[in-house]
Structure prediction request, 388 residues.
Amino acid sequence: MKFLHTSDWHLGRSFHRVNMLGAQAAFVDHLVEAVREHEVDAVLVAGDVYDRAVPPLPAVELYDRALHRLADLGVPTVMISGNHDSARRLGVGAGLIGRAGIHLRTDPAGCADPVVLADVHGDVAFYGLPYLEPALVKDTFAAEKVSHEAVLGAAMDRIRADLAGRAPGTRSVVLAHAFVTGGQASDSERDIAVGGVEAVPASVFDGVDYAALGHLHGCQTINERVRYSGSPLAYSFSETAHRKTMWLIDLGPAGEITAERIDTPVPRPLARLRGRLEDLLEDPAHTAYEDSWIEATLTDPARPEDPMARLAARFPHTLSLAFDPEGREEDGTASYAQRLKGRSDQEIAEDFVAHVRGGGSADEAERAVLRGAFEAVRAEDGRQEAGR
Prediction:
């Protein structure tokens, strides 16, 4: 049986200030075409369909169009809720939608009720294990403690028990949304540590032929049978080196796994540039990045004038600008209060000027401006106090 494994669509999410809805629609187009081209038997979506519990209307409309198009293909889709989704909202109408071949699995209590599909070699049971918040589902699964490993382990025990009662030779696939030990995180995933230690061992999925994972945004293989598809689009500059793909999995008659990565459309490449402003503007080595989304870190000893506008003249898609002056030394051991102790407002302000310049202190004219500002504030405070 052949299926596409994808996850983490995050419909409704932006990339910095760029609306990604068009790119997300292009991904849906690509997904539908890949289903046709590769003649897949099922589509798996391992959570975080939306970016937030109450998604914007255009994201809901795109989701609706995606479901209709997948249903029209006559290819079953199995979809679970992730930690970004509202499980209750995503699961509304699941029974009716299931009649069209779109199987929503958002209720943890139903994790051992699989979608059973058949090919010439027999049945394949697809178990949907939505994101499990330990504090909320501990009692549901009679888990020993409040932790991700405990509740996932208890849920998988139910799945293995159901599988053991099925016909010999029944193959099995689990969709899950979790942080599995050995996976590499990026900056764009929301932490799921609330309620207990977040990482779970891959061994929790022992006994099934394939675990289709969601949550981490980089496509990665934990082991042959446990894989993350990653997000189809980049949602942070920490994903600059990611190759965005879906997994095309061929599940053999005895549970053999053949896996192929199917590239997804890239709306615009990402680049992280670092250096002095003039070097970034003049270095011919950066020509290849002029049409990329840019995260620039400037290392000039003093903050340049109007840096964003100057960068945008060469790199019109600059989205993020940070400063890390060369040679700056900071005492990371002293607290903020300790560093300010015994210093006047004037000295603190002058230190701030030196900080943003990477060490260049205020000159006499700037010190005079600062003194005048503080004196004006004190005078105004005095007038207000006298008027009470």
Notes: The mean pLDDT is 90. The two ends are 81 Å apart (CA to CA). The longest helix spans residues 364-386.
